[in-house]
Amino acid sequence: RRGGRIRAASLAASTADTLDPAKGALSTDYLRLYMLYSGLTQYDLQLRAQPGLAEELATQDQREWHVRLRRGVQFHDGRPLTSADVVFSLLRHKDPATASKMKTVAEQIEAVTASGPLELRITLSAPNADLPAVLADSHFLIVPADTRDFSRGIGTGPFRLREFLPGVRTVVVRNDNYWRDGRPYLDEVELIGIADEMARVNALLSGDVHVINAVNPRSTRRIRESGTHTTLVTPSSLFTSLIVRQDAPQTGNQDFTLAMKYLFDRPTILRALFRGYASIGNDHPVPPGHPYYAADLPQRVHDPERARWHLKRAGLLGLHLPVYASPAAEGSVEMAAMLQLSAAQAGINIAVNRVPTDSYWSSHWMKHPLSFGNSNPRPTLDLLFSTLYKSDAPWNESGWKNARFDELLLAARAEGEEARRRNMYVEMQHLVHEHCGSCIPAFIHFIDGYDRRLGGFQPLPLGGFMGYQFAEHVWFNG
User: Could you write out the three-class secondary structure of 101-130?
Assistant: First the structure.
């Protein structure tokens, strides 16, 4: 059904909210960017790359890719899409002045050259069969050539920008010249941030908003029993992690890092904190069920005595140390409280510092020896490891540097033989499990709440809100 106006509330908004795809960092950014811009490819419900602005993305050797663009695509200001726009959009990630979140990923792009108005060639430094999936990521959405001012949000996406107030709200209206026939269905979408989960649920049930993300498992029954609203549960690779900085004097000790990993009671976290809406993690970022999951790794268990042994060997028994947590990192406040109790059993004192949502990511995340992070799923392991664990990755939360890991990452990217590639990714999981300062106790299911009048809402494991792309696909029967 065509028509209708809806409001969506995400858990995070910030004065650093952006209209530049290269700089997106929060769920509200991804939602906003997918509404305004389009990529060369798009994810389907199984995270496979499907044609987007590129009608064809072909290669013989996974290193040199030939791209043919759709005809008749227009930017919101009426300019036609050409290969020059794609060349600019991809190469700007390599420029340090752009401050792209995907700079380390874009380093594999050796050259992008136009071979015609709607044709171009992408040359990589080494083969990468995952390139089509990488290019569907929100950071690689296409902008007009030579764009320096992003305040108007000019893209080729399903909606045009009407209003943007960072940290407050975004309002978009249907793009009647959208290149995909029949989409979008909605006339207008307003996106706001409501940090408090209970306030988000109340806003949904009162009719003030029509769809929310990051619903607490404790709220699911209340939403479903309302009669007018329901939930969408999406198993995923989302995780909240304890970040143990490897470049700090005490937390950088390998025995201290291992001690922290033995202090998490994972079954209790799964049962008490997430009420079964999660799966147990093993201190690496690949969830059970993934084709490359390292099933040979023994599951790390809750063992305060073993943690005490590591702390004693490190000479850190009796240590006093703060840990920073916030509702911004889902479940981190509760995990921190549980960690505090286990740490006392192991012989150290951890003080929990709860930080408000609006200042956590900018002022505390990755800035203390111990803090919590929250990492969204990535469509490929190459993208996951490149953005979070490579030595020079901008989101390398624990500051971990491992030459063998970096070597394997580049080798796996270029490896065409499936069994060898899998073995490389398994070894990388072993390295993270044993040596990295990333403690991952669980993988969290996404839970969205929505008005039953909203149609077309389906699970996409990249994130809540249908992998942040719901606005293009849903309709409202209001």
Answer: CCHHHHCCEEEEEEEECCEEEEEECCCCCC
Query: Mean pLDDT for the chain?
Result: 95
30-43 mean pLDDT: 97
Contact call for residues 159 and 474 (beta carbons, < 8 A): no
pLDDT of residue 251: 97
- The torsion angle over the Cα atoms of residues 414, 89, 467 and 149, rounded to 10 degrees, is 150
Listed in order, strand segments (DSSP E) in 258-400 are 278-280, 320-325, 349-354, 370-375
Rounded distance, CA 219 to CA 31, Å? 23
Q: What is the mean pLDDT of residues 144-171?
A: 97
What phi and psi, each to the nearest 5 degrees, are found at residue 384?
Answer: -60, -55
**Given a cut of 80, is residue 175 above it in pLDDT?**
yes
Question: Where on the phi/psi map is residue 308: left (φ > 0), alpha (ψ -120 to 50), or beta?
Answer: alpha
Whether the predicted pLDDT of 478 surpasses 90: no
Residue pLDDT, tens place only, 394-440: 889 999 999 999 999 999 988 878 899 999 999 999 999 999 999 99
CA distance 260 to 402: 20
In angstroms, the CA 276 to CA 3 distance is: 37
Are 163 and 170 in contact, with CB atoms under 8 Å apart? yes
DSSP string, 190-252: EEEE---HHHHHHHHHTTS-SEE----GGGHHHHHTTSSEEEEEEEEEEEEEEEE-TTSTTTT
Give the start-end residues of each E strand in 299-391.
320-325, 349-354, 370-375
E runs forming strands in 150-206: 159-165, 169-174, 188-193
Rounded distance, CA 56 to CA 50, Å?
Answer: 10
Tokens standing for 404? Answer: 């063998």
d(CA 361, CA 358): 8
- Per DSSP, the three-state class of 476 is strand
pLDDT for 54 equals: 98
333-345, pLDDT tens digit by residue? 999 999 999 999 9
What do you get for the CA distance between the two ends of the chain, in Å?
A: 10
* Cis, peptide link before residue 288, omega less than 30° from 0: no
Helix (H, G, I), strand (E, B) or coil at 417: coil
Cα separation values, 177 from 35, 75, 77, 85, 158, Å: 14, 9, 10, 18, 8
Tokens of 344: 């006392």
